[in-house]
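Good day; I would like, with your permission, to put a structural problem before you. What I wish to show you is a protein chain and, alongside it, a tokenised description of its three-dimensional fold. I would ask you to consider whether the tokens describe a fold that such a sequence might reasonably adopt. You will find the record immediately after this paragraph:
***
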Amino acid sequence: MRLTERVSRINESPTLAVSARAAAMRASGIDVIDFSAGEPDFPTPENIKDKGVHAIETNFTKYTPTSGVKKIREAVANRYRNKYGYPFTQQNVILCNGAKQALFNLFLCLVEAGDEVLIPEPYWVTFPEQVQLAGAAAVFVPTDAGNGFLLRTEEVEKRITPRSRVLLLNSPNNPSGAVIPRQTLSDLVQICLKHDIKIIFDECYDCFVFPPFQHTSPFQFLPEAKEITFVVNTFSKAYAMTGWRLGFAIGPAEAIAACDRLQGHTTSNPSSISQMAGIEALEGDQHALALMFEEYARRRNFIYDALARMPGVSCNAPQGAFYVFPDISAHLNANVPDSVAFSQALLEECHVGTVAGSAFGKEGHIRISYATSMENLKEGCRRIHEFLSR
């Protein structure tokens, strides 16, 4: 069958591919420890589930406005208004079928053929694929593991051209866990203002930043940054709502209205049921979120210490999110020449699923998600240590 060039250029999601292989092995009776999926192992909090059930029971199951019902758009605007003191309104907000759609909407509205999008490495695997689908070119900005993968403004400035349209930032970062410092982000805002470059800021893990590190958003530099900044977030990570498919973008009203027109011809509105649950997530009891954060912090400390004891492995302590991104390059050789081969061998021989660092733009690393039980972390780390010792 003849397929379009655009879809032929798209790579399969490496994270989903490993998860699928791990699931297939598990279905065949193999005991697999899967560290590949960026999915909380916690259930959706009960108060949020109850609102979803109530929506079904009261027949709130019809179409809603494309951008979401007024109440949830206002709830998002209120959260950001209270956080940053800027007069956001529902006109600045669009609800989407997950943060992926929010990002894709923005790319399709902000860039076109010949444009360039600056993407720091390492990056989430979907970023360059979406940029390519939008017709633009990804321009990668290197970071250094020895510097904690912190983005340097001079590296961004060196790669700006007359075709640069967007700087795509992700903090806390997936996969490295790095958090962009306030001064760095302030400098980046000034650079983007100078060159008329929009900022798309993915803060899907903003609720999981470990002291002494602090989350910083471009919205902390309002009102100066108001016309160039778009923030994307999701209910999936903080509220363990991955299957509810609910995310949002917030930014200048004109561009959000364009996203609304686009979404109206793709998926229409996000699930009415999920929207009701999302209102409760934003406005209801936050106790479950606090418990999840506490557990992630415990797991983070465990796996960082475990990796530090493994021969030939170096790893930065993650500052946020729920991933570690160890350097395993000392173990690459003629038989295991790269991170893809390493991850495949680890899965097939020791039944531990990880994602190759090359998928995130950093060869010689693997990504491990610690959004899983402590029991799995202990057994998985034991198997990795055994694998490395061979």
In short: The chain has a mean pLDDT of 96.
